[in-house]
Amino acid sequence: MSKTYKEFEKIFVEITNFCGLHCSFCTPKKEAKKIMPLELFNKISQEISPYTKLCSLHILGDPLSINNLKDYLDSAKDLKLDITTSGFFLNPQNIALLLEYPNVHQINISLTSILYQKQPMLLESYLQKVLELCQKHQAKQSEKFINLRLWNLNSNFKAPKCNATIYETLQKHFNLSSISPLKTRLSYKIHLIGAPFFEWVDTENTIKHTRGFCYGASKQLGILCDGRVVPCCFDTKGEITLGDIKTQNFREILESKRRIDLINGFKNNARIESLCQACKYPNSLKSKDLNQKNIKKESKK
């Protein structure tokens, strides 16, 4: 009997692998620009909606770079959506879509991207578009969450000097007495979130971790823009392909031997796939827990 409860916390769907940027911290080599066909996204939306609490339209690309984003949002009407964007493609049309569509639950903006371009870009004009989104969110008294991410703190959760202008701009705009690099409530349901850089999987690294637990394949999945299903958003090249949703139904992919073996491995504290053995994300979970403890300490001061 097929499961119909929401067994996944989040499924990442890459509707495009294009972001238009050259961030120095983004190590995965991107393939030629691809956009998931709307027909394929329609199929995915219908098949995954009974299984996941949340759908994030992001793995490598920026969903706001798609000209007909409205069609994708319409297709995903039965999904609660997370939109993750660099903010570079914010314009009046996209801002309206993000704030008007009821299925958009959360908007994540990577402020980090503006600070680490190979060719310097104007910070002021970039922040102006981000703040326009925030202003319209406030005017509508929107219930959506906006997270402004600055994920470039060091291992001690201290901010680099390059963040100073962003902090000053946000503090002035939202009329705040201070800004915490870890987490600051800027306004109703608008937050600044700080965290250390995360490390992409380096399969060339000779150090392998054969022990460790992960929720990949059990509580989260990824679907690349060509339809390949992978266990998580770190598998940007489909090295652990669990199936192809272009030619298979979602239930069939969930019952694949490779997925079941991967989940059983994690349950036994074993990483059986080479990509997983090179991944440092399980270690970053410990860092995330420490980050949360630091946030609580900051809030008590």
From TrEMBL:
Q: Which cofactor does it need?
A: [4Fe-4S] cluster
Q: Which domain of life is it from?
A: Bacteria
- Is Metal-binding among this UniProt entry's keywords? yes
All residue ranges annotated as the 4Fe4S-binding SPASM domain in the record: 214-280
Q: Where are the transmembrane segments?
A: none
Which keywords has UniProt assigned to this entry?
Iron, Iron-sulfur, Metal-binding, S-adenosyl-L-methionine
Q: Which residues form the Radical SAM core domain?
A: 13-135
Q: What is this protein called?
A: SPASM domain-containing protein
Give the originating organism.
Helicobacter turcicus
